[in-house]
Structure formats: C-alpha cells, structure tokens
Specification:
By secondary structure, the protein is α+β, with helices and mostly antiparallel strands. It has helices at residues 3-29, 34-37, 56-71, 85-101, 106-113, 157-166, 195-205, 210-216, 227-238, and strands spanning 45-46, 54-55, 76-80, 130-135, 172-174, 191-194. The protein is globular, with a radius of gyration of 22 Å.
C-alpha cells in the first residue's frame, strides 16, 4: 500500500473514531432529561399500576429475582415502585398538613417528614429503579414498612435473610443501610435499588441545580427550604447512601 494512501485511511479512521466518541458522549449527556430525573415523565417506565411500574431494565431483573425467591418459598411483593413527582408531592404535603395541624412548626414538620419521606423531585422512586418490598406470604400488619417487621419474629425476617444473600446477584442493593455513621433517612430494610440503572441516573442527578428546581415548584412548606437546608439535605439524604450505589 502506498504511503499517502495509508495515511489517508489512517486519518479517515481517526476521524470516524472521533465522531463515534463524540456521539457517545452526546448520548450520555442526553440520556436523562431533568423531567425524567425529578419524576415528571420517564419513557423507560413500564407497567400499569402503582406497584408494577418500574424502569424497564429493573423490571426484568426484578422478575428474575422474584421467581428465584418464589422457588425458595419467598413471595416478594412490591409495596411501592415508580412514584411520580405529583404522587410524592401528595405524600409530602399530606404529612406536612398533618404535622403542622398537630402543633409542629413548619421546620419541625419538614424535619420529621424527611426521616423517611423525600421532598418531591428528590425521590429515587422517580427513576423507577427503586422498590419497597415485603413478603406476601404473610398478612399485612397495621404498619407494614417498619424495621421490626424484618427482624426477630417479624413476618418479613425470612425475606430479609434471603435478600441479604441473593439480592445483589440480581443487581438490587439496599439503599439506606443500617450503618450507624450514615446520616439522612433512617434505616429502610425494605428499600432496594437496581444499581445498573440507578447509578448512572444518580450521577446525572448530581449535576442538577436542586435549589433552583425546588424553589420553582409550588410545594407546601417550600418557603422553609433555605439554601443551607437544601445543601444539607442533598449531602445527607440524597448522597449518604450505600457506597455500592454511588
């Protein structure tokens, strides 16, 4: 092959590699819209009910995990999966009204809410990658998602033992772990996240201007979302999670 022809092919090849890399970068940048990340529309969600809607990749992995558990006598039942911005807003505002009616100040009410519940626009359930699960073999107790149900003589202790052994092999990781040094939301032994999808979404979520987004939304109690509060909430409640999900 003549030298000039070889150099020409080399340049063309290098340019094609550059274009592929550029397109790949653009694809990654455009993979998740702001609305998708804050629960206002997600084309990757499949399912037709509150407990069946999930990210399409998480759904496949969940069904595999559920079938495996079923063969071993565990009936995994979803209590909550994908949750829209509007649904999270209803939950948050309902608790806000309840606690302020009981006599708590707005700031006290918000701090009580975020022991377990997220501010609309900040929930991992917005992504369709996270699920709250129980063992459907047992009648539901009055309070379903409480820690004592998953330990000792609790109805879901066998489920918890099974998940500790098997969930990660299906890509599901406990989010708010029982780590005494972890801050933010309290321990949730029922909450699992499908890491292959949630990790890239979290990376993109970190880039959002959370303070501006929350200030623009008409959320009851948002007048008390100071910049200092949101920065602390972001650090502790959003980012202080299982390191395997970072």
């Amino acid at each position: 092959m003549k030298r000039n022809h070889f150099l020409k092919l080399l340049c063309i090849g290098g340019f094609l590699v550059f274009l592929i890399s550029l397109n790949s970068f653009t694809f990654l940048q455009d993979m998740f819209s702001q609305n998708q990340l804050i629960g206002k529309g997600n084309p990757d969600i499949i399912g037709n009910s509150y407990t069946s809607k999930m990210h399409k990749e998480a759904k496949v992995a969940f069904e595999e995990m559920k079938n495996k558990a079923s063969r071993e006598g565990i009936k995994i039942e979803v209590v909550s999966a994908y949750r829209s911005f509007q649904r999270q807003k209803e939950i948050f505002e309902g608790k806000y009204k309840k606690y302020t009616t009981q006599g708590l100040s707005p700031s006290e009410a918000i701090n009580k809410i975020i022991e377990y519940s997220t501010i609309p626009g900040t929930s991992r359930h917005h992504w369709g990658t996270d699920i709250d699960i129980i063992d459907g073999n047992y009648p539901k107790p009055k309070n379903v998602l409480v820690e004592e149900n998953f330990y000792g003589d609790g109805p879901y202790c066998k489920l918890k033992e099974w998940l500790d052994e098997h969930s990660e092999s299906f890509g599901f990781y406990e989010v708010y772990t029982n780590n005494p040094n972890r801050k933010g939301f309290k321990y949730e032994p029922w909450h699992f996240s499908y890491a292959p999808a949630s990790k890239p979404m979290l990376r993109e979520y970190k880039k959002l201007d959370l303070i501006t987004i929350l200030q623009e939304e008409n959320i009851l109690g948002s007048d008390y979302f100071s910049e200092e509060f949101i920065q602390k909430y972001r650090s502790q409640n959003i980012l202080d999670i299982n390191p395997d999900l970072q």
